[in-house]
Amino acid sequence: MSYSLGLDFGTNSVRALIVDCASGDEVGTGVGKYPSGTEGILLSANEPLLARQNPLDYPAALRIAIDKALKDADEHDSSFSRASIIGIGVDTTASSPIPIDSNGNPLAMQPRFADNLAAKCWLWKDHTAHAEADEINRLAKEQGRPYLEKCGGTYSSEWFWSKILRCARTDQEVFAAADSWIELQDYIPAWLTQACEPQRGICAAGHKAMYDESWGGWPAEEFLHELDPRLAKMRRKFLRAEPSSTNAGTLSQEVGLPIGIPVAIGLIDAHAGAVGSGVRPGVLVKIMGTSTCDILVGDEATPNIPGVSGVAQSSVIPGIVGIEAGQAAVGDLFQWFASQVAEKSQSDLSELAARLRPGQSGLIALDWNNGNRNPLGDSQLVGLMVGQTLHTTHAEMYRALIEATAFGSRMTMERVSHYGVPIEEVIVCGGVAEKSQLTMQTYADICNRRMKVSRSSQTCALGAAIFGAVVGGAHDSTIDAIKAMTGVREQVYEPNPKAVVVYNELYELYVDLLNAFGGQAQRTELGSLMKKLIRIRERATLPASEVP
User: How far apart are CA 97 and CA 108, in angstroms?
Assistant: First the structure.
C-alpha cells in the first residue's frame, strides 16, 4: 500500500488529506484554521478592497492539519503508516503573492514589519491594485505585447504583477526590503523542502503572472522596467516555471512525517480541484465555493480566448493546455444576502425559493457584487437587481441571485464553445455544489446541461494528493493518476425542458444588462426590459395547466 498527502491552503484554513494512491480512497483528513484576523483574513477599515494573510499562520495551521490527518488515518486504515506516504502535493489560493527576503523568508517574519499589512500575503481577493492593473493593461496595449491575449484580454487587479506594483506605489519601505516576491503556491513547497532558491509553478505563473514560453517565459525586462525598474531587476531571479508533476525537492521540515518524502511543485486550488474531479479533454469542471472557477483542458490547437481568465500550457495537466474562467462572487454572494439583507439562513431561503417557478420572481440580477471576473475582467463593477416591487420577497431575491450566477456560468460555456473547445460533460464540486440542490438544478436548467457531482468532497486536496502520487512514483502520468483516483456520484441534475424555455428568455435580458452596464455596447435598449420581466412573471404565476 502507498499513500500520498494533499495539502490544500484555502482562504480560511489548510486541509491535509491522506489518499490511497491506487484507488483515491481518502483515509485521513484534518483541518487547521489560520489564527490571525477575521477567519484568517486581515482586513482594513480604511480600505474595503484590502485582504491579506499572515504568513506565520501557514506553518502553524499546517502542523495542526497534518497531525489530525495522521491520527484519522491511523484510526481508520490498518494498512496505513507514516512510512507509506510516498509523495506530497500542495495547492493554494492565487494570486496570493508574498514579499520575501534573500533567504526566501516572508518579510512579515521580521519584527519591523510584524504589523505592516503590505509585508503580509496579498490574498487572492485583495482588489486594491485596480489602478496598477489598468497601468499594466495600458502599457501592454501601447507596446503591442502579446501578454493580454493569454488572459482573456485584460490583466486583473487580483493578480501577481498588479499587487507587486501596488506595493511599489504605496509602501516604499516594504518594496525596497523585498528581495523578491513569491506566490503562496510556490512558498509552501519551498518552505517544506527548505529550498535555497524557490521553484516557480506554471499554474500561477501562466494564469496570474503573464508567463508563457512563446515570449520567453516571464514578461520582458523592458516591459517591467517601464512599469518600475525594480520589477525588471527582480525578474532576473525568477526560475523557469514548471508543471505540478515536477519534484520540487524532498521534505526537510519537521511536520510529523519522515524526512525525504518527495514534494510536488504547487498549483492553484481551483486547478487542483479540477484534477481531483477528473478533468480531461471535453470535461468542464466547476469549482463552486465562495467564488467559482471553471477549468477545462484543450489541445495544441486551442486558441487564445477573449473573456476568460487565462489559457496556459501545462497549468492543469502537464503537456496539455489549461483554460481558466470564473466568477468573483458565488457562495460569498449568497451568504452576504442571507446574513446582511434577509437575516435568514440559506437553508430557509432555499426552501422558499425552491417553491418558485422560473421567472415567477419577476427579477433579474447581475452577480457583480465582487466585480466581474469573466467575461469583462473588471473588478470595479458592482451588483444590480431589476424588477423589484413592493411585494418582492427575500426568497425571490435570493433565487434571482442564484440565477444570475448561473447566467454568468452559461456565458462562459458559450464563450469557450464558440472558440472550438468542446464541452461534453460538466462536473461540479465544492461546498455550493454539494450543499445546494436548488443551485445545481438552476444551473442545469439555465445552462441546459447535465450536472454531475464529484465523488470527493475535498477535490482540491485530492488534486494536490494526485500530484503527490505522481512525484512519488505511484503513477506514470497525471492522466493515469486521475483515472485511478477520481470519480463522480450517482446523483445527476438533469435539465427541466420547461424551465429551459423560460430561462432562455431571461438569459437574453441578462445579456442586455451585461452589455449595458459592463460597457460592451455603446447603446443598449433597456426601455422594454422591465415590461418583459412582468410578462414572464405573469406567465409563471398561471396554473400549470394554463402555461403556454
Answer: 13
Which grid coordinates belong to 514?
A: 451585461
- Report d(CA 287, CA 330) in Å as an integer: 11
Residue-wise pLDDT tens digits, 63-120: 999 999 999 999 999 999 999 999 999 999 999 999 999 999 999 999 999 999 999 9
Count of CB atoms situated within 10 Å of the CB of 289: 20
* pLDDT score at 547: 55
CA dist 176 → 5, 103, 164, 361, 523 (Å): 37, 15, 11, 55, 47
Cα(512)–Cα(13) distance, integer angstroms = 39
145 or 519: which carries more pLDDT confidence? Answer: 145
Global pTM reads: 0.91
Q: What torsion do the CA atoms of 485, 486, 491, 494 make, to the nearest 10 degrees?
A: -160
Q: Grid coordinates 518527495 are at which residue? A: 262
Cβ(425)–Cβ(528) under 8 Å?
A: no
- What does the alpha-carbon distance between residue 211 and residue 207 come to, in Å, rounded to a whole number? 8
| Residue found under cell 520540487 | 248
Best CA proximity match to 125, nearest among 52, 216, 228: 52
Q: Who contacts 528 (Cβ-Cβ below 8 Å, separation ≥6)?
A: none
The pLDDT of residue 300: 78
Lowest-confidence region among 271-275, 304-308, 460-464:
304-308
Is the N-terminal amide bond of 95 cis, ω within 30° of 0?
A: yes
For residue 297, the surrounding DSSP H or E stretch is strand 292-297
- CB half-sphere exposure, 540, CA atoms < 13 A: 23
DSSP helix/strand/coil, 450: coil
Q: What count of other Cβ atoms lies within 10 Å of the Cβ of residue 527?
A: 6
Please give the mean pLDDT across all residues of the chain: 94
pLDDT tens-digit series, residues 400-446: 999 999 999 999 999 999 999 999 999 999 989 999 999 999 999 99
The three-point CA angle 514-517-523 to 5° equals 95
SS3 19: strand
Give every strand in the sheet of 425-429, ordered side by side: 310-313, 321-327, 292-297, 283-288, 425-429, 451-454, 488-493
Q: What are the beta bridge partners of residue 28?
A: 18
Query: Quick one: pLDDT at residue 290?
Result: 85
pLDDT for 278 beyond 70: yes
| Torsion 211-324-479-257 (CA) sign | positive
Q: What is the distance, to the nearest Å, from the Cα of residue 506 to the centroid of all Cα atoms in its chain?
A: 27
Angle, to 10 degrees, between the axis of helix 57-76 and the axis of helix 184-193? 70
49-52 contacts at long range (C-beta below 8 A, 24 or more positions apart): 49/126, 49/127, 49/128, 49/130, 50/117, 50/126, 50/128, 51/123, 51/124, 51/125, 51/126, 51/127, 52/117, 52/120, 52/121, 52/122, 52/123, 52/126
Long-range contacts of 111-119 (CB under 8 A, 24+ apart): 113/174, 113/177, 116/171, 116/173, 116/174, 117/42, 117/44, 117/50, 117/52, 118/167, 118/170, 118/171, 118/174, 118/175, 119/174, 119/177
Q: What is the structure's pLDDT at 544?
A: 64
H or E segment to which residue 512 belongs: helix 497-517
**CA dist., res. 205 & res. 201, Å (int):** 6
